[in-house]
Specification:
alpha+beta, four-stranded antiparallel β-sheet, 3 helices, about 25% helix, about 30% strand
């Protein structure tokens, strides 16, 4: 019994010693000073705010809502394909381009409680679209509008074509 106990004690001692050395090695390998915040965080993504609603945008939104006020929607799905220059390739809605990578798409119905999905894409079947990122949000002060922001893979605002689907349950 005493030989078995000694073997277990020796194994536990070596295990503790090994873990202690490994932990100490990791602690020594860590830099003594904190890295600058710029090195830890990715490049700034610019502003995450929407541009102000223009008078033309507000006028178009009111006209679209007024034109469809007679229709009661139980459930609907609206789809639009937009070119990188802000022109509508196909689908429903009105597209307004605000700046580099900033678009507003207006529909004839309230979309504030909708499910909004977008992806970077081309209008034609020619090629694979360029890599990039896309973000969507309900448009501020415009209940029938969706704000779309496109960026390249580095996070810089860039004009990219996209496909937008808005589903109202």
């Amino acid at each position: 019994m005493s030989t078995s106990f000694r073997r277990k004690l020796a194994a536990v001692t070596f295990a503790v010693l090994g873990l202690s050395l490994a932990g100490g090695g990791i602690a020594i390998a860590q830099p003594s000073a904190k890295a600058p915040q710029e090195a830890v965080q990715p490049a700034a993504r610019g502003t995450n705010s929407q541009p102000p609603v223009s008078a033309e945008s507000a006028r178009l939104a009111k006209a679209a809502m007024k034109a469809s006020s007679a229709t009661t929607l139980a459930a609907t799905t609206s789809v639009v394909v937009v070119n990188s220059n802000g022109t509508k390739a196909r689908g429903v809605g009105t597209v307004i381009k605000y700046g580099v990578g900033q678009y507003e798409v207006q529909f004839g119905h309230n979309v504030t409680s909708s499910v909004i999905v977008a992806t970077v894409g081309r209008a034609d079947s020619c090629c694979i679209p360029p890599a990039g990122e896309i973000s969507v949000a309900p448009r501020l002060s415009t209940p029938n509008g969706v704000f779309v922001q496109t960026r390249n893979s580095a996070g810089t605002p860039t004009d990219l074509g996209f496909h937008l689907v808005v589903h109202l349950p």
